Amino acid sequence: MNTAPGTPAGDPPGPAPGKAGEVSGLLKPFLPWLAFSAVTGVAAGAATVALLGTINAVLNRPGGMAGGLLLTFVALCAVALVGRAASSMSTNLVGQRLVAQVRKSLARKILAAPIDALERYRTHRLMPVLTGDVDMISDAAFVLSSALIALAITLGCLGYLAWLSPALFGLLLLALVVGVGVQTWAQARGIKGFHKARDAEEQLHKAYRAISDGAKELRMHRARRAGMYGGQIEGTVDRIREINWRAINTYVLATAFGSALFFLLIALILGWAALRTMPPSVLSGFVLVLLFLKGPLDQIAAAVPGIGRARVAFQRIADMSARFATPEPFLDLDQPGEPAALADAIELRGVGYGFPAPDGGEAFVLGPVDLTLRRGEMVFVVGDNGSGKTTLVKLLLGLYAPQQGQVLADGRPVTDQTRDHYRQLYTTVFSDFYLFEDLAAEAGQGGSLPERALPYLQRLEIAHKVSVKDGAFSTVDLSTGQRKRLALVHAYLEGRPVLVFDEWAADQDPTFRHLFYTELLPELRDKGHLVIVVSHDDRYFHLADRVIRMDHGRIVEGAAPVARPRRETAAA
Ligand SMILES: Nc1ncnc2c1ncn2[C@@H]1O[C@H](COP(=O)(O)OP(=O)(O)OP(=O)(O)O)[C@@H](O)[C@H]1O
């Protein structure tokens, strides 16, 4: 259901809803593999424990290892080896598939997310998730497999020790409760720190963007540059270093405490043995297994910080995933689909859209707007900065779904089901356009692409710089104005019924600007395209069939369709 314009469309602050569901959703497809990994890991652990038991038995009886015992030993070695390899490989497989799936799923979610949701989730928040957080999971997948096997071995050893001597096991259990308690405390503290560091990393990414995108401006402004480096980057980097240092130190101290506890436990067991008589096989078995256990326990302790960081990364991924959990309905990512056709007109009927108010500012509300645009018309959309021209165009293009009213193409309302197909009517060159180098989508339209492109490149006076080779422009390293011309070549090649140019001519030299308004646009119109031009070039407004003037989100002039007086040549 549509909401009234002005309804805040922003996400509430704090974590997105449904994160737990997202995490379990991400893990669900891998449960059978995880189960296999657990079973083989437990088998490897049990075989290792049995090996230790066998060694202890051999140490405490005359005759050494021979006959059946030797065969058992070899068989146990084989189970431990195969189990460990199978468990590690399957955990590694899960890790890598999980990372691949997360990458694909995030890309699909971004591709299918409503544009306004993407505009709210800033790029400096997107990139750390797509790169850093996903890599963190990939790294954790490596350590996780050996940590899981170490856990299985530890549990098996504990079972063996409980069987060997329940009394000594009681003592061990006490030490374990203290050790695990300290590790849990360290993990909670560490994760808190990692969350803080991760927040700071977002700030760092913002600063990195500023120094790459704003390199020229920073070169020209010493005070800002000093503030950017000394204030923002150094400060943030040092804060991250400090937080991570403290967080990891917590783990280090907990591990050191665990080691001390471990040797204290061995001393206690040996002291116990001095006070109470116990079979030597029990004592040697206990000490042997405990000493062996130090290895897996250290492995687990070493893996814990990485797993803690991976948990933080996983939550960030799940958070982003949940924010984009509602894709635009009926947006097909897999099929190119049929081209769209427009026989007559596009209409906006009572269309309204509101942005949420910025902090301390007023909300911008567009509409309600009524507008009819016909094929073969050349329409200029004009108005002051911030009057709503681009917002109107985004509603027209179907990039924003109207919060009120409806858009119609040839009299048929554009619905959620048809919006994506409807968008294929348009070719756009936005003021902040992105130029795709490859022309693969245009290759299938018949004729050789380089031959089709050449006249347009010549007409736009960039044929000496760019050609089309292997389905792509040979270069896009051009001036801003030339890049925009290339975008126009793309538009010609697409040949869609409606062309939208948002301040296209702003970067063109006067001669070419003149050519654009007086020849190129009228030619496109005369070929039957609907041409929509957002412009501040009032010198050329008289060439339009209709000038739509925006003011404070409303159309104040030019809403009514007019019969277009046919011109012999637009320049006349
Ligand atoms: N992503 C956004 N989030 C919140 N508010 C926005 C957003 N985009 C635009 N606005 C608000 O909508 C108003 C209209 O913006 P719009 O880009 O449509 O203006 P415009 O007429 O195209 O301006 P210009 O001539 O400067 O390009 C702005 O004043 C701004 O407050």
Q: Which properties best describe this structure?
A:
single chain, ABC transporter transmembrane region fold, ATP binding, 15 helices, 12 strands, alpha/beta, disordered N terminus, 4-stranded antiparallel beta sheet, Rossmann fold, 6-stranded mixed beta sheet, 11% strand, binds adenosine-5'-triphosphate, ATPase-coupled lipid transmembrane transporter activity, 572 residues
Give the SSE map.
Blueprint lengths: L18 H9 L3 H29 L7 H46 L2 H6 L2 H42 L1 H48 L1 H5 L2 H54 L4 H44 L21 E10 L10 E10 L3 E6 L5 H9 L6 E6 L2 E2 L5 H5 L2 E4 L10 H4 L5 H11 L8 E2 L2 E2 L6 H15 L3 E5 L7 H17 L3 E5 L11 E6 L2 E4 L15
Parallel strand pairs: 3-10, 3-11, 6-9, 9-10
Antiparallel strand pairs: 1-2, 1-4, 4-5, 7-8, 11-12
Helix pairs in contact: 1-9, 2-3, 2-5, 2-9, 3-5, 5-6, 5-9, 6-8, 6-9, 8-9, 13-14
The structure holds adenosine-5'-triphosphate (ATP).
The site of adenosine-5'-triphosphate has 12 residues, from helix 10.
Short description:
By secondary structure, the chain is of the alpha/beta class. Helices cover 60% and strands 11% of the residues. It folds into 2 domains: 23-323, ABC transporter type 1, transmembrane domain (ABC transporter transmembrane region fold, Up-down Bundle), CATH 1.20.1560.10; 345-557, P-loop containing nucleotide triphosphate hydrolases (Rossmann fold).
